[in-house]
Structure to design on (106 residues):
């Protein structure tokens, strides 16, 4: 099992945990909207570090983003496997070709 899969399993298990015992359980107890808001905050923090160019801080903020992304997904019962399946479906499809094949905007 990868670190990402272990983290996703821990987050899933926190759905049943006491909010006083865990940050993840506390965030999940606040509902999907709050989880989404927190993800947005963490994404902005990562953007700031990416613009500044501090590699170490960017790695740390990126870890926060991935953790909070998984919490946001769990809050809506979307699994890491669901996302992996979608990524696998896209494998080999060029982003440029996919974009060109989209219907023209009306
Ligand atoms: N990867 C993480 C992880 N990354 C970040 N965080 C927490 O996310 C919280 C938010 O970070 P911030 O720096 O934004 O905190 P803050 O600004 O004080 O938050 P607010 O002001 O918004 O309240 C902090 O409490 C961090 O410790 C994490 N908490 C947990 N995990 C993983 O989840 C597992 C389960 O954790 P618990 O649910 O706490 O048992 C852990 O063993 C880790 O593997």
């Amino acid at each position: 099992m990868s670190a990402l899969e272990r983290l996703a399993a821990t987050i899933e298990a926190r759905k049943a945990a006491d909010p006083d015992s865990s940050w993840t359980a506390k965030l999940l107890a606040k509902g999907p909207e709050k989880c989404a808001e927190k993800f947005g905050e963490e994404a902005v923090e990562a953007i700031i570090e990416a613009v500044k160019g501090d590699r170490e801080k960017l790695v740390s903020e990126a870890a926060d983003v991935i953790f909070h992304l998984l919490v946001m997904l769990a809050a809506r019962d979307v699994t890491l496997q669901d996302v992996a399946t979608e990524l696998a479906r896209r494998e080999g499809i060029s982003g440029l070709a996919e974009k060109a094949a989209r219907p023209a905007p009306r």
Notes: Residues 83 and 89 are 10 Å apart (CA to CA). The radius of gyration is 17 Å.
